[in-house]
Amino acid sequence: MTHSRIRHWRRRTVAIAIVAASATLALSACASPGPDASSASDSTTPVKGGALVFDIANDPINLNPRATGSGNDTLYVLRQLVDSLTSQDPTTGKVIPWLAQSWTANADATAFTFVLRSGVTFSDGTPLTADVVKANFDDIVANGAQAAGAITALPGYVGTTVKDDTTFTVTFSSPNGAFPQALSSPSLGITALSTLKVPFDDRATGEAIIGSGPFTLKSYTKNTSVELSKRAGYAWAPSTYSNTGEAYLDSVTFSVVPEAGVRTGSLTSGQVDVIGGVLPQDIETLRSSKLPLIIRANPGLSFGLSPFASHAKLSDVNVRLALLTAIDRTTVRDATLTPDFKVATSVLAANTPGYIDLSKQIAYDPKKSEQLLDDAGWKVGSDGIREKDGEKLSLTIGYISNFAANQSVLEIIQQELKTIGVDVSLVSGTVPQYLADSAAGKFDLVYGNLSRADGDVLRTQFSAAIPTNTRGNTDDELNSLLVDQLAVADQSQRNTLAQQASARIIDLGYNIPVVELTTVIGTTASVHGVVLGADSRLGSLVDAYKSGK
């Protein structure tokens, strides 16, 4: 069977599967917390006061919500400082009101009219108004690529028209059906006008970030800690939280502790209250110590490899597809993680709206990989590494250690690819260096994931229309699908188009899924009300308290 016929057969099979998958999509769209997550819904009476110490793995780097690209720990902090226009129910996946009490969309999803909740103020005492929201959106667009954490939510932004203090309409030149869900991210959190008057680069320290969240910034010491204080008068958490008023805790300290073993030891000894980034090998240690775990599978892009198709060695689709089927995902998972982490079965994690099971298309088949490389003209050399036109098939994979298992996962992949004749070098570094090197095309593939409970995450990572996507997606069919899913406000229709886009991405070898990320947070028995949001990142700590057990 020729490669073109294989692609045609795959698309026909996927089209059949989409029909069947749509019937169960509502059930799989959003995962609920795992059985260890009981501490998040404890029925004890909340206790007011107290200080919570939360160990995180990475320095936040930049506390400007718009510039976030430094990982989940940054968003953990920002979620406490800024509120969003919308929220997303972690159980149902439904987009629900927050600072906006209601909204409507026109027929082609190019205009969205919002009505703000009354009585909301920022921590500097100024009120939330439609003019403030407009200024926030205009600021994002004005700063363009600098506002990497938010600009992808505003493709084709025309402007915001203010009707009165509480009503405004956001207009786009092309449909943007994912807009209400995108607004739920901390990156789109609304800040006061005083923040926007500060030059963009000067907002990184967080001193200028004035939000409407339940906490305010007391101090930020790089690579050491972020200290937050309770915000007086807070009274507008989303409906998924039980606390309708001020946070119970007086303060929260996020301590930067890169060593996972130190974080685990501090929790088991009672020196800290909560830890993030629990290593897979430490999960059973905490369970055996009777310490509660909050576990939730992350929606969005699975952890995987994204090739730079623009690079000569990866410009042939057969080479990319050879890498796709050369990885034994079950072996990788079992050797580096625990059963709490699922083997990837698609570009999107299984609990993401728009997911489709493509496990057959990405199944481990090293013989097939070898044949594809043979067909592409890469022949095995005397040292076992394939050659073509006098050049070795040597590739560089770039990654960051924002998830502790990344290096171990990649080392196994490195060995598996060597068995089919592909030489792989692994390169890591600081987050800023990784981002700069990736943008400059210094890697042949990058390894990572992105948590978001919406299939539009595919567009933000694979669309050629996104300036930061420089990996070489020139496929008209895929780019059309990624744009088309924004053209409808109906979620089920958008899901179907996301499924088709996922299938096309796999057909082209633009992504090589490996494992699904699962967020694991450990707490002491005295901590209650710590929850993970729909994106499996830390939610607001407005419900959190310590019982004194």
Give an overview of the whole structure.
The chain is built from 15 helices and 23 strands. The chain has 549 residues and is of the alpha+beta class. The chain folds into two domains: 3-29 and 299-516, Roll (Dipeptide-binding Protein, domain 3); 35-295 and 519-524 and 534-546, Periplasmic binding protein-like II (D-Maltodextrin-Binding Protein, domain 2). The strands form six sheets. The chain has a seven-stranded mixed beta sheet, with helices on both faces. A five-stranded mixed beta sheet has the order 18-17-19-13-20, sandwiched between helices. It is globular. The N and C termini lie far apart (66 Å). Residues 1-41 have low confidence and may be disordered.
For the structure shown, list the relevant keywords.
globular; 2 domains; Dipeptide-binding Protein, domain 3; 15 helices; alpha+beta; D-Maltodextrin-Binding Protein, domain 2; five-stranded mixed beta sheet; 549 residues
Give unreliable regions as ranges: 1-41
What's the story with the biggest beta sheet? 7 strands, mixed
Count of distinct structural domains: 2
CATH class of the largest domain: Alpha Beta
Strand order of the largest sheet: 8-9-10-1-11-21-12
The percent range for helix content is 25-40%
Superfamily at the CATH H level of the largest domain? Answer: Periplasmic binding protein-like II
Bin the strand percentage. Answer: 15-25%
Number of strands: 23
What name does CATH use for the topology of the largest domain? Answer: D-Maltodextrin-Binding Protein, domain 2
Q: Please, how many helices? A: 15
State the end-to-end distance.
Answer: 66 Å
> What number is the mean pLDDT?
90
Round the Cα radius of gyration to an integer and report it: 23 Å
Which class of secondary structure composition applies to the elements?
alpha+beta
